[in-house]
Amino acid sequence: MATPIGNLRDISLRALDVLKAVDAVAAEDTRVTRRLLDHYGIAARLIPVHEHNEKRAVKQVLALLDAGKSLALTCDAGTPAISDPGAVLVAAVQAAGHAVAPVPGANAAIAALSAAGFPGTRFLFYGFLPAHAGERRRELQRIAALPYVLVFYEAPHRIAECVEAMCEALGGERELVIARELTKLYETVHRGPLAQAGAWLAGHADRRRGEFVLVVEGAAAPAPTGAARARRTLEVLLAELPLKQAVEVAVKLGSGRKNELYPLALELKRKRGAVSGKR
């Protein structure tokens, strides 16, 4: 079940109904969840299920489910199992034959992406990069050429070094959106080139505080090779000119030598004829 990522009103009516109805709530941090429940006047039994006890907590949760009880699973903010504990428990519950129903809600990655202003619909949600500098650099290099918008989470004590590593691996010209403390009092959404992100963070101590979502522009499409450019040039010219003249113009445009372009033009001409014949 998704819980607020900052503002306590960022919770669905359905989520509140579920929290009121279940027999217990499995919570990442019972203190955080208790504040949420108290805010809405909900009295529910809390069971701690976090990264250090998740495997042990499975037995307790399964025992309750086997006894016919109902449970909700929450994390401190956002959705369980998305860069948070919960996946181990969900898998165990499913394996035991119990139903698992998602209750969607606020999501920091999607919220930041919607405010980033990057065109297109494809993105890669990475989550947290490795804490070790060498591993982080290798991961960034591995995904550097992907044409998708990249979405990361980062902690305040690593934000400066993370942005520096991104600049080195991805290139300073790429646009970066830094979204911090989303839906909270000091929410900030800043956009600018990666090369300038470090200076922006250093400009004020508050800019390095809070929980961060980093949204990075996808890699630009690689420039076409010489052969690809020559093919495209001839395709355009052949649509308007006879073969010989098309080759001559392509040579003048610097697309290649005549003895290279002529066989390619013949091939393209034959293909165009074959297509026309089929029609």
3D structure, described in words:
The chain is α/β, with parallel strands linked by helices and 279 residues long. The protein has 3 domains: 13-95, Cobalt-precorrin-4 Transmethylase, domain 1; 108-216, Tetrapyrrole methylase, C-terminal domain (Methyltransferase, Cobalt-precorrin-4 Transmethylase, Domain 2), CATH 3.30.950.10; 226-278. It is built from 11 helices and 8 strands. The protein has helices spanning 13-21, 30-39, 54-66, 87-95, 108-116, 133-143, 159-170, 194-202, 226-238, 243-252, 258-278; strands at 24-27, 45-48, 71-74, 123-128, 149-154, 175-180, 188-193, 212-216. The strands form 2 sheets. It has a 5-stranded mixed beta sheet with strand order 4-5-8-6-7. Helix 6 links the parallel strand 4 and strand 5 (149-154). Helix 6 crosses helix 7, helix 7 packs antiparallel against helix 8 (194-202) and helix 10 (243-252) crosses helix 11 (258-278). The termini are far apart.
Keywords for this structure?
three-stranded parallel sheet, alpha/beta, five-stranded mixed sheet, elongated, 279 residues, Methyltransferase, Cobalt-precorrin-4 Transmethylase, Domain 2, 8 strands, Cobalt-precorrin-4 Transmethylase, domain 1
